[in-house]
Amino acid sequence: MMKGDERRVGGVKGRDGRRDGRDGMSAKAGHHQRWTRKHLLGLQELSADEIRFVLDTADSFKEVSTRSVKKVPALRGRVMVNLFFEDSTRTRTSFALAAQRLSADIIDFSQKTSSVNKGETLIDTARNIEAMGIDIIVVRHPAGGAAELLSRHVKCSVVNAGDGAHEHPTQGLLDLYTMRERFGKIEGLKVAIVGDIVNSRVARSNLWGLKKLGAEVILVGPPTLLPRAFEQLGARVVYDFDEVVGEVDVLNMLRVQFERIGTSQFPSVREFTRLFGLTGDRFKRCKKDVFVMHPGPMNRGIEISSEIADGAQSGILKQVTNGLAVRMAGLYLVSQASD
Question: pTM of the predicted model, to two decimals?
Answer without folding.
Answer: 0.89
